[in-house]
Structure formats: structure tokens, C-alpha cells
Amino acid sequence: MDISTDFMRRIAHAAAAETLPRFRSQGAVANKEAGSFDPVTEADREAERAIRALISSEYPEHGILGEEHGSQNLTSRHVWVIDPIDGTRAYISGIPVWGTLVGLTVDGDAVAGMMSQPFTGELFYANASGSHYEGPGGPRRLATRKTTELAQATLFTTTPALFKGDARKRYDQFETKVQLARYGTDCYAFAMLAAGSVDIVTDPGLKPYDIVALIPIIEKAGGVITTFEGGPAEKGGDILAAATPELHAAAMAALRG
Fold it and tell me: Quick one: the chain helix, strand, coil %, rounded to 5?
């Protein structure tokens, strides 16, 4: 099935109405994980409510999986996967590299998705017509770079600290093989890969709502995104995305050690 651009925009606007007024407002932050720090804000919860309401009104028979408000009707062939603010740590720090992620799976495969960054006025989305951008500079189709060699690649990860034990050693060695490595930006790094500014993004331990929306944006722009084992990324896990099949294969080999 196809999801209209208009519906993507409506979701983005509904979420922004909840997130933007609270951004840089020094609002209350709760911690969802004892012994660690997994922040959640009122903006997360209210943005997801707004998104769920739109989906339920437009597609009442579809299922929904959201980070903040759980799941409903997951036996449906069509399931929407929502992260109202991917990058809550950036959000509470006042840095505009967070985004609203909403993706649609059909029989488990991600077929449409959007990442909205309302502070910068950007919308990255993919549907049956391809992968697209709307924002400063005007609308355009998204396309990954043609980089095939690690030595020419720009790499992003949220933080190397997420790699544990031997995986950290392999990551550190992998980083020495690329031209440039940068940290942070969560979902924004994946969007920049689709936009042709970044070549590789890798993050371990992702949840479905962290990645489902980004899969079609990257794939329809020409990129490759899988788990470290080469499997589908829809269920999350240790994720590797790259601009070309050749670069993806080289990065996977390097990460495996």
C-alpha cells in the first residue's frame, strides 16, 4: 500500500505541535530505567498520543507499536512503529538533532517511513514514490553517495561506549579504517546517509521503534541497512547502514573482525 506525502506531513505537524513548544524549555525529565539513564519527557508522551490519534483515525484496522504507549492490534498485517522523539538526550540538551520517527510495516517489512526534525524544518520520508526530502533549499529526491571504500568513508555512531567487550575492540579497529568518524545525532545520522552526506552509520542494541522508519528512507535512496549478521533490520538489534552494497560488505567484514 502507498502512504501519501500529505499524511506524512500531517503526522509531522501533529508531533511538532507537542515537541517544539517544549524544546529548550527546561521541562521536567523522568528516568525510565533504574540504575541507568533513559530519559522521557512530556513531549515524548504527548507527541506519541497525537501521532497515534491520527493513525487510528485514518487507518483504524492497523496495529501500532510505540515507544511510550505500548502496542495495539499487532496481529494486523499493517503495523505502525513510532518513536515520538528519537534522541531524547539531545532534545533535553537543547541540540536539534533529535527527530520524530514513524514507520509502517506490512507483514513485517518496512515499506514507508518518515523522520521529521521540526526545529530545522526538515522532513525525510519514503513511500511508494521513493525517498524524499522537504526543507531548507527546497524539495528533492534523496540519494546516497557512491562511496565503496572504507578509506573514503564518513562514519557515524551514537557513541562507541555502546559497544561492549570484544565488540568495542572491533569497533575501535573499524574506526581506524575510515576517513572521518563522528559521534552523536541518533536518527539524524541515518537521515544524512540517505541524503548523501554520510557513508556509514552503525549503532548496537537498537529497538524496532529506533530504526523501522529509517529503513525505507535509506533503502529507497540506494543504501543498504541490516543487522551485523546481514539480516533484516526491522526488529532492531545491532544495526549497520551504508551508502552502497560494496561499502556495506566492507564495513560488515571490519566490524566482525
Answer: 35, 30, 35
Dist CA 172 CA 180 (whole Å): 13
Cell numbers for 28, please give them.
521536567
Do the Cβ atoms of 65 and 55 come closer than 8 Å?
Answer: no
Give me the average pLDDT of each 10-residue run along the chain (257 residues): 95 98 86 72 95 98 95 97 96 96 98 98 98 97 98 98 96 97 96 98 97 98 97 98 98 91
For the chain, the residue count is 257
- 200: its cell numbers: 556509514
Q: Residue 236: is it exposed, middle or buried by C-beta count within 10 angstroms (0-12/13-18/19+)?
A: middle
* Helices 245-256 & 166-175 angle (0-180, nearest 10): 130
> Which residue is associated with the grid cell 506524512?
8
The predicted model scores a pTM of 0.95
Cβ atoms of 244 and 251 closer than 8 Å: no
Placement of cell 527546497 in the chain = 138
Termini Cα distance of the chain? 40
